[in-house]
Amino acid sequence: MPLTPNTKKRLVTAALVAPASIWLFVFLVLPFIAIIVFAFGERAPEGGYQPAFTFAQFANLGSRAAAFKNTLILAPIGAVACLLVAYPVAYYLAVKASPKYRLLLVSLVVVPFWTSLLVRTYAWMYILGARGIPHLLEMVGIENVRLLNTPGAVLLGIVYGYLPLMIMPIYVSLEILDRRLLEASADLGARPLSTFFGITLPLSLPGVMTGIALVTILLLGEYLIPQLLGGGKVFFIGNALVDLFLQSRNWPFGSAIAVTLVVVVVIVLLIAMRIAWRVAGTRQVDLV
After folding, report:
1. Tens digit of each residue's pLDDT (9 = 90 or more) over 166-209
2. 34-76 pLDDT tens trace
3. Alpha carbons 247 and 107: distance in angstroms, whole number
4. Which of 212, 226, 228, 219 lies closest to 276, judged by CA?
5. Domain segments of the chain: what residues?
6. Which residues of 131-156 are buried (b: 16+ CB within 10 A; e: fewer)?
7. CATH second-level architecture of 65-285?
8. What is the end-to-end Cα distance of the chain in Å, rounded?
């Protein structure tokens, strides 16, 4: 029996989608299912996982309250700090920069990604360490300044490491902005500040929310920056997971924290989507 055109299209679509679907199922869905199973188990006497069905691991989440507190406070603050730095840069690139040099300037924003985050974070360890800025301050009479191993150092590393991820979605929103709206606003006598808050900012909010959601979600699982710039004194959830899985070998408790983290990420994403939809007045806003 010959296949109909619609059947052929469906088969072609299934053939194209199947490899990615299988990849995601094997490397994303199955590991997450395993984590959920571990979360309801118990720690084996020698470490690892022991089959059981208990909610004790979730009831013990309060023992890692410091990690949750640091993450839920510093991650949003870091995202907002990235936004405050990224928006002027994105605005200049999209609206003010000459088209002749715009591509070059945008490329410079992406250049830091060509170098490992580990190497760049180590550079900040030197800059903020005893031989860096504190040494320069001592030379001018300002002594006993400690920058490394502080929440401020972690926030600085967050802004530096995640700034390009905030700039690019805002730049895309501003780059497609209809310039005729700005010209009309100026022709009608609106001041530049009124034009910005009345036209530019509202129309760029989908990009803003995309950047905030993207950066916040990644920061919720951040490990490297708190570990190196926080010096073990500023713990994120990611640091707690490494400790539980690799050192304490308490896989069930680590899995419970991981599941809780996923729930928090989903909540953050849903809130960001709802805000973006309401502000932009459309349900066609992509955040990931």
Report:
1. 999 999 999 888 888 888 888 888 888 888 888 888 888 888 98
2. 999 999 999 998 888 999 999 999 999 988 898 999 998 999 8
3. 41
4. 212
5. 65-285
6. ebebeeeeeeeeeeeebbbbbebbbb
7. Orthogonal Bundle (1.10)
8. 42
